[in-house]
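Here is one chain, start to finish.
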Amino acid sequence: MPNYIRFILHYTRFILPFIVLGATLKGVVAQTLPPEIPGRIDSLFNQWNKAAGPGCAVGVVRNDSLIFSKGYGLANVEFGIANTPATIFNMASVSKQFTAYSILLLERQGKLRLDDDIHQYLNWFPDLKERITIRNLLNHTGGIRDQWELLATAGTELEDVITQEQIIKILSKQQGLNFKPGTDWSYTNSGFTLLAEIVWSVSGQTLRQFTDSAIFRPLGMKNTHFHDDYKEIVPNRSSSYVTTGKDHYGIAVSGCSNVGPTGLFSNIDDMSKWIMNFYAPVVGDEKEILELTEPVLVNGEKKRNYAKGIVADSLFGQKRYQHGGVDVGYQSFVSVYPELKLGFMVFCNLGNANAQRMNEQLASLFIKDVSKRQHKSSQRDSARAILANTGRLRDYTGDYIADDATHFRFVVKDQKFYGVTPNGQYHLLIRTGADVYAVFADTTSYFQFSGAGTNRVLIDEYWPGNHLQFEKYDTAAKTDRQLTAYTGAYYCPELDCNYRIGLKDHRLFLSNAKYNDSPLTVYGDDHLVDGFWWMNHLHIMRDTRNRITGFELNGNRVMHLKFVKTEQR
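Its structure:
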């Protein structure tokens, strides 16, 4: 999953007033904002406050109060209706923390355990010869392929009507996993659809019904619900848009009725009450909050800052709980700083708005950055990276690709060894052991080379809690005769869908009845990469006579999905 980009604005005129440690929240009167702060907030959101364009709703929570809330731009461009703190937005993946909390509340009631096998509650889910627990679903360690990529591969676009039943059907036909449960981490929406189904199986209530009775009503979130019927009318809902040109917008269409990983509808006023529940629990108690925000461990190591439907990290030197969401023209980002009893919300109804960046800019107006005092940069002499003999690297320079289509190139330049990313960034490497080279700027990331002098040179990349293997490939261009071997029809039994690889003007292309043709780039003999976001890497399968028998779809959040070659073109 992508590193978040943090844009931090530093201000020195305003420092957060801290409350006395141990003071209760009841009866605390919301403090008046310093007069310059509302103007600074307006400046941050000025570009989204157009008279004829979509925008955002913004909120700031301190202690037990919503101390700032305002709308910018239009909730509905066609009718000129403004965004306000009461405007309803699709929360997208912010929904996941509510699904996870529902599971924790059911555990509190003694109706399930996090280490139960999911087949105990979902007898329709296929037997993949592996034990997958509820905990695996909560923290993305179950290895289950992502539903959106599976649907798109099968020919369902995100703008199509998508129901809970349709997703369950496609998940029920899966015959493989991305990895053995508990051994790796991969963000997957499918797990949270399964969690929603477990809520129904255990409680006898849909996720919408359960959250309404167990979370929303107790917290007074009267305008929040899981939207499980795309046709349902929601008063005061914002419309969602995409940018089609400068100051021109198009309608973002959604027919989705899926709940669990997405589907939560809420507003600033309601979400502020959920933020307060993190440091002054009304629903659940401190035990559930700690469980919700405990980062995942994989093989005994901290794998990610991801916990259970929420990220537990830090910013400005302060502990933070956060999650964002993106869904067909909507963007949302909610952050909580529990030790400061502060929370920030940014909800947008324009697909290219960067809700996370704006949320962090907003937070910087209220939180003094103390991280610089905690981390002093260390100086290292890059002269240590100069190699007396680069001949030993001859076998290791060149181009490499991993199963998930990640690319790296390794070069020697000015007696130094570099790893080069696909966007052209050079990372200086320093030798730390036999055939082991670490990133000079961060020696916790390193590459271990093997296979020198053979026809299969490999690299194992390691960084904290992670591992990825690369294989060196030949960059020589292929002839039309060589490319013809890849052409033909390919069928996926798990998705019941067909694709075809064709050859035109000396180049391969991938075609499907639903989508426009996409050019394929060949890397070595066994890797084809295309422009479809849902199936961007085809790993060729061969028989003992080296004939192509099909390919595995290995890419973003779907791995080892097999397509069988059924026809030679």
